[in-house]
């Protein structure tokens, strides 16, 4: 062993310490951090110190403690030593004994005199095993931690090549893609996409993210439009199950949130019935995000304390919805808007109730049409309003500045209509 050589090349190595005895000399916070990592790795940890800090005491069910000063003889019959006594002379004596017995020793007090080092570590569970990245930075722990955090963000962003290269069990992950902008997709959603072998995508999903996939990833387009479903739901369920049973990681990329009028529940049940592991990654629901893009909060102090979200594809229960005191949000309801508005008025909703129809929220071509229940159908027809759109009914629809579109990501100023 050679230690203390500034600038010398280091040989990186991961150790399997499962069941192997490791000596931790010291009872303070540094020793506690080292011991906690070793316990988590399955080591047989022996702590030698006159007293223990609270964190080390919490670990007592999982390690052995000898309440005394550490001695050089303690390094006998151990595989690895960590010194963190706070006494440089004691640490040096233990390290020298370890060197004589050819036992690797990590010194917390003097990195350059150490024979081994503990790196800054990033760990991520990828479903079929853990990815571990270790970072050292020339003895500068602050720089190592900074690099670790940067790597952690990179792994979470979905930009890292995380696809599995060896066979293993398949699984399905339903990922809510949010309202359309790629940067509104969650970090976990990006990570699952980076791991995917197959992506089954909806028309309203953030399709720009597909450009970041590996070329080998199979993309299955099952895009639906209102009243036109080229791929029936039963066929989508079959596609998900078939690929997963073939050992592939499948991502079902949907717009909004999978469980908010997205038929995600049906897909989960189909996977479970086939014995396929399934996970749901929530997304930013369009019911709230698209109105926000137009400067409309779905709840607002003094105007609305609740919000009701319904599908606009089918006829609504106008009698029940007319009694809703809060905000009413209809998804994909442009086709049925004339009938819905008339039915709400007929059921007792005031004809002067503000309405806003937001097309292409958070996408190019975003546009808002504002009116009331009395005239919104005519205004929408005159302006050629089309799906995808979110319809907001209630006092909050009159909050946004008239004819003002909010640039995605820009501050929103609210001003009541005059």
From TrEMBL:
CDD domains: SUMT. This is Uroporphyrinogen-III C-methyltransferase. GO terms for molecular function: NAD binding; precorrin-2 dehydrogenase activity; sirohydrochlorin ferrochelatase activity; uroporphyrin-III C-methyltransferase activity. The active site is at 202 (proton acceptor), 224 (proton donor). Keywords: Cobalamin biosynthesis, Lyase, Methyltransferase, Multifunctional enzyme, NAD, Oxidoreductase, Porphyrin biosynthesis, S-adenosyl-L-methionine, Transferase. It comes from Kineococcus rhizosphaerae. It catalyses: precorrin-2 + NAD(+) = sirohydrochlorin + NADH + 2 H(+). It holds the Pfam family NAD_binding_7. GO terms for biological process: cobalamin biosynthetic process; methylation; siroheme biosynthetic process. Residues 171-376 form the Tetrapyrrole methylase domain. It comes from the Bacteria. The keyword Transferase applies. NCBIfam families: cobA_cysG_Cterm (TIGR01469), cysG_Nterm (TIGR01470), PRK06136.1 (NF004790). Pathway: Porphyrin-containing compound metabolism; siroheme biosynthesis; sirohydrochlorin from precorrin-2: step 1/1.
């Amino acid at each position: 062993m050679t230690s203390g050589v500034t600038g010398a090349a280091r040989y990186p190595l991961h150790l399997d310490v499962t069941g192997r005895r490791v000596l931790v000399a010291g009872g303070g916070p540094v020793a506690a951090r080292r011991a906690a990592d070793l316990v988590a790795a399955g080591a047989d940890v022996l702590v030698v110190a006159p007293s223990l800090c609270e964190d080390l005491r919490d670990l007592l069910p999982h390690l052995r403690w000898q309440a005394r000063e550490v001695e050089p003889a303690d390094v006998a019959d151990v595989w690895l030593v960590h010194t963190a006594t706070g006494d440089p002379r004691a640490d040096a004596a233990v390290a020298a004994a370890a060197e004589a017995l050819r036992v690797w020793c990590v010194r917390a007090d003097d990195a350059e005199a150490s024979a081994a080092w503990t790196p800054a570590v990033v760990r991520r569970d990828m479903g079929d095993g853990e990815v571990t990245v270790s970072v050292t930075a020339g003895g500068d722990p602050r720089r190592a931690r900074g690099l670790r955090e940067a790597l952690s963000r990179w792994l979470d962003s979905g930009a890292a090549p995380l696809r599995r290269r060896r066979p293993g069990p398949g699984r399905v992950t339903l990922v809510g893609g949010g309202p359309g902008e790629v940067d509104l997709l969650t970090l976990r959603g990006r990570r699952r996409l980076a791991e995917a072998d197959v992506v089954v995508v909806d028309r309203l999903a953030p399709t720009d993210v597909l450009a970041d996939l590996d070329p080998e990833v199979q993309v299955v387009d099952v895009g639906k439009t209102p009243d036109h479903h080229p791929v029936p739901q039963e066929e989508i369920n079959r596609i998900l199950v078939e690929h997963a049973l073939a050992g592939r990681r499948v991502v079902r990329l949907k717009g909004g949130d999978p469980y908010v009028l997205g038929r995600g529940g049906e897909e989960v049940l189909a996977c479970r019935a086939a014995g396929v592991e399934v996970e749901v990654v929530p997304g930013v629901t369009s019911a709230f995000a698209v109105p926000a893009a137009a400067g409309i909060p779905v709840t607002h102090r003094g105007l609305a304390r609740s919000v009701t979200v319904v599908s606009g594809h089918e006829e609504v229960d106008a009698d029940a919805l007319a009694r809703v005191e809060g905000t009413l949000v209809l998804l994909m309801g442009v086709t049925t808007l004339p009938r819905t508005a008339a039915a709400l008025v007929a059921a007792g909703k005031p004809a002067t109730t503000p309405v806003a129809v937001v097309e292409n929220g958070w996408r190019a071509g975003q546009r808002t049409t504002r009116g009331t229940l009395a005239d919104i159908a005519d205004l929408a027809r005159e302006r050629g309003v089309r799906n995808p759109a979110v319809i907001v009914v209630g006092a909050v629809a009159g909050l946004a500045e008239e004819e003002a579109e909010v640039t995605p990501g820009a501050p929103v100023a609210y001003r009541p209509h005059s």
